């Protein structure tokens, strides 16, 4: 059952890929032409593909998906969350880049590190204990957890306050392996730091494993309404559409008891 559902969602995610949609439209039109189907139908599919491209590229669909994914996290501020006395800040890795055999955190990672450190600093400057749990192995030779740890120490964090979870390869595993560590520590509170567009799915997965974190969105993405479609709008819209498919998958698996 799970195998079939995994396959279904992989297929659904294909529909969040721009090249696949264009390829699909072209294949349908070619097949209809070879079978001498109605010309009007082929034209209609072509027009539909163009309209969909415009709808995605002019930023309108991106605005809708951006609001759905991020609006609940736009007002979170670290300075308002000082009530708990022994928290753990969980920060999710954002990928690793390898340029000329030199590995660096992906561009998304830096806003996450800054947000996590700001929250950590608020506690430490008041002489309150606080830990940072970095979650992510990534696909490089050096784990995201290790790269983040080096950066946090350079910022001024104590090495003793850093916990590295370096096994997870995706958000599901971030939640699974981090929750195991958190249950051993039993902190007073858990803050979750990741990008705004990623937060809804991440929170849902942590809740699946019995952790109810306080969201701290580190960055946000949005599109601009434009007369002419552009690649900026299209790229961010497809990123957010993929995230929505992921949220549907989490909700369905939770309802069927297939997560955890």
Please describe the topology of this protein.
Blueprint: H1 2-14, H2 18-34, H3 39-57, H4 60-70, E1 88-92, E2 96-99, E3 102-105, H5 107-124, E4 131-135, H6 144-155, E5 162-165, H7 171-185, E6 190-194, H8 196-208, E7 214-217, H9 231-255
Parallel strand pairs: 1-4, 1-6, 4-5, 6-7
Antiparallel strand pairs: 2-3
Helix pairs in contact: 2-3, 4-9, 7-8, 8-9
Descriptive account of the structure:
The chain has 260 residues and is of the alpha/beta class. It has two domains: 2-70 and 229-255, no CATH class; 81-217, Rossmann fold, CATH 3.40.50. The chain contains nine helices and seven strands. It has helices at residues 2-14, 18-34, 39-57, 60-70, 107-124, 144-155, 171-185, 196-208, 231-255, and strands spanning 88-92, 96-99, 102-105, 131-135, 162-165, 190-194, 214-217. The strands form two sheets. Strands 5-4-1-6-7 form a five-stranded parallel beta sheet, with helices on both faces. A two-stranded antiparallel ribbon has the order 2-3. Helix 6 links the parallel strand 4 (131-135) and strand 5. The chain is elongated, with a radius of gyration of 21 Å. The relative contact order is 0.17. The model has no long low-confidence stretch (mean pLDDT 88).
